[in-house]
Amino acid sequence: MIRQTRHEMLTEIKTRFANRALTDQEVPQEVLEALVEAASHAPSCFNEQPWRFLIATGERRERLLATLTEQNQEWAGRAPVLVLTLSKKTFTQGGRDNYWHMSDAGCATGFFMLEAERRGLTAHPMAGFSRKQAREAFQIPEEYDIVHVMAVGWPGDLHLLSEKNQARNHPKSRKPIEELLL
Ligand SMILES: Cc1cc2nc3c(=O)[nH]c(=O)nc-3n(C[C@H](O)[C@H](O)[C@H](O)COP(=O)(O)O)c2cc1C
């Protein structure tokens, strides 16, 4: 499964998609650290680096999984790792609101996802979870916004998915670039 692009570009941009077919095979700790390191090299306003990653395995994974919608639990329940992505709302120096923090966190998770793709892993972001429950479950301070949860794991057998999820487990189409250019 590879996207057709009009122009030549990074292979991982073409191969990455929001894959739901994952195995429960463990992801080594050093690989998870490498993904966080890749994310850490994203640009950010005043180099604030507002992103934080709560890597949930074992008991913490169970706790985070419980905050996902049933629909997401159905496939993300197999992921050996769930990541709760957070973003600090204010600048450390001066304490002013950082308007750009979510944008920076999004860019960092883009780096995370592309490095995951390069290593043959899937990192699939989700908004389908209770931010309130996640905040309570991990006692996240108010100075951090909750961005999303990512399911991280190795691609697995499509047939493990429900028929509905099998049918939609492919790269989605995109708006033509003419529509994006203003
Ligand atoms: C912030 C965000 C939230 C998302 N939430 C979910 C989700 O809750 N469940 C899910 O299965 N996919 C979720 N997705 C994946 C998107 O549906 C997917 O990226 C989009 O349809 C484009 O497909 P593609 O990534 O395969 O190109 C989310 C993606 C993002 C960036």
Task: Give a short overview.
With 182 residues, this protein is of the alpha+beta class.
What CATH architecture label applies? 3-Layer(aba) Sandwich
Give the terminus-to-terminus CA distance: 31 Å
Q: Please, how many domains?
A: 1
- Sum up the overall morphology in one term: globular
Q: Could you tell me the radius of gyration in angstroms?
A: 17 Å
Give structural notes.
The radius of gyration is 17 Å and the shape is globular. The chain has helices at residues 11-15, 29-40, 58-65, 70-76, 101-118, 131-138, 163-167, 177-180; strands spanning 51-56, 81-88, 122-126, 144-153. It has one domain: NADH Oxidase (3-Layer(aba) Sandwich). Helix 2 packs across helix 5 (101-118). The chain has 8 helices and 4 strands. It has 182 residues and is α+β, with helices and mostly antiparallel strands. The protein has a 4-stranded antiparallel sheet, sandwiched between helices. Helix content is 37%, strand content 16%. The chain starts with 10 loop residues before the first helix and ends with a helix. The model has no long low-confidence stretch (mean pLDDT 97). The longest helix has 18 residues, at 101-118. Bound molecules: flavin mononucleotide. Flavin mononucleotide is lined by residues 17-18, 72, 125-128, 148, 171-172.
